[in-house]
Amino acid sequence: MSEQEKTPISDFYAKDPIKADQQVFGRKSHADRRGFLRGAGLAALGAALGSGMVFHRNFPAGLIPQALADASVVPGKDGLVILNDRPMNAETPAHLLDDTITPISRHFIRNNGIPPQDMAAHGWEMRVDGFVDRPLALSITDLRRDFEVVSRQLVIECGGNGRAFFDPGASGNQWTVGAVACAEWTGVRLADVLKAAGVQKEAIYTAHEGADMHLSGDRAKRPLSRGVPIEKAMDPNNLIAFGMNGGDIHPMNGAPLRLVVPGWPGSCSQKWLTRITLRDQVHDGAKMTGTSYRIPRYPVAPGTDVPVEDFEIIEAMPVKSLITHPVDGIKLSRSSLEVRGHAWAGNGKVSKMHVSHDFGATWQRADLDEPANPFAWQHWRASLTFPKPGYYEIWAKATDDHGVSQPFTIGWNPKGYLNNFYHRIAVTVTE
Ligand SMILES: Nc1nc2c(c(=O)[nH]1)N[C@H]1C(S)=C(S)[C@@H](COP(=O)(O)O)O[C@H]1N2
Ligand SMILES: [Mo]
Asked: What is the pTM of this model?
């Protein structure tokens, strides 16, 4: 199907996504998944597909037809692979993450609920309360006026990135490698705002709230409300951001205001930020408790049933790397190849980068850049020579400045978090 033929449905969604959704799926509300294709929606979908859908009565509500299942239905996103569209979750193929700074159109999307309908910067307010001397209510204008505005390249990676490779599998979004990005975020330091509010000595943990709605539509429930220990919150690299790559934040990435807490699971970086409360206990908001964003305290064999009290909260993300060029599966008619990508570590820096073209028997040192600023991903490159035609894989391995390297196998855990095994791509050298 050509781009041209896809236009009708993207247009349809771009104008009024909620109405488009109601028409396409016949849902009265976002929470109602029982709709079916009908009338105008069916017609629009038929036009977009270039052919009528024969068994449309069987087509489950909330699904996007596979032929249209790229993020072209999300205005401003390009080439992402949609894993789920209610809530919207979309990852970026590795070769589309080749840029130094991830373009807005290629930044993955991980929603736990329904984004707010009103994301206007004008009138947006965030509160800071709890164990503070002076509770604050700040507009974006206040933030810009009262605090130093800084721009930083910061990696956001979902805690579940790489889950698709778990065996036995883990439930949740089946992210492969693309739930990670490094955009340039502009905003004010979270630490400066907390200092202005006056952090009291009882405050040990933050609690973050956003304006999104729980999938059930129940306003009393939150889709996600996480927090971090006060020591991590005071790290000067955390931002309350109102800008992305020199422009506005994309609606699906938390417009008009979000937290960026780099190095820790993406879930700590609350989107559509409305409130930060300082608490005198570990925050117990939505997806802070039970087994959410937690792993067993000790290594377990794949498939082990671990009691919930043996889980602990994930803090820093592990060292990891991506091969962003060439694309996986490339066929080459020559024996040499330039390989490149990025590497990052949730705690500190990447100090060494290696690649292998012989399944890890030997490793070649890659050329590795320093990060543009703390928590920016580091770019690397290497040139490989293949001895003769045939099938090869390129494996990439980063080592952090604590001497910890990416492992060959997955550190299996029940919920499928923190998979940092080598990124591999296939290369065939032809005669
Ligand atoms: N309000 C709100 N913030 C949120 C989420 C959410 O569902 N609601 N998802 C979190 C998760 S799990 C991740 S990985 C990151 C993803 O950020 P992105 O969608 O901008 O890529 O946002 C986090 N912030
Ligand atoms: Mo996430």
From this structure: 0.86
